[in-house]
Design goal:
This protein is an alpha/beta fold and about 200 residues long. The chain has 4 helices and 7 strands; from the N terminus they run βββαβαβαβαβ. Helices cover about 25% and strands about 20% of the residues. α2 links the parallel β4 and β5. The two termini are about 30 Å apart.
Length: about 200
Amino acid sequence: MQLGSTSGLPRRHPAAGESSLKHDTGDFVVNYVLVVFGEPAFYENNVEPVGMDAVMKQIVFVRHAEAETGSNVPDQERPLTPNGRAAASQQSRLIVCCHVRVQGIITSPAVRARETAEALAAGLPDKVPVEAADALYNKSSDVVLRFLQRLPDDLDTVLVVGHLPWVAQLVSLLVTESRDLFFDFPPGTLACVNLDLLHWEELEP
């Protein structure tokens, strides 16, 4: 695997950057977008830690993996497809490879998001609690931002599983100060945002 920074992106901090990787298993593709804002965290030819000493808080945003479609199932109850479950399990390996130490997982209560969160949690080396929050389903990015601002400060790295449009809008907003998306966010995409913050209440675009 190779992660390399991409130049020319709009940035709110000189050290911000973006890198993308698709891991092809032969049966499905795992989408991985690494977005760092804070200290530089990109290394050519090796996957190195994205958690840096200068980074105080870290959010791993995940869009739920591929879900079943069908008009007979209410939106909130749609489960993952077999490929979606497999891809979510692969995502946890990428998190471990990048030495991101997740301390808590918060997910939308929708079935597809909860199943994604549970698959990710199962692949992490440490037991990480998974909690569902209504603020992450069918809400605006402003509502989700206010929810994140109320996270307890003893939680430094949190993984948040949600939906479009807010998950992609928030990543773009935190990195570029704009809700205009600067990369695709298909199902299963993961984005890690390093934040130079001491307290969650300081989180703002």
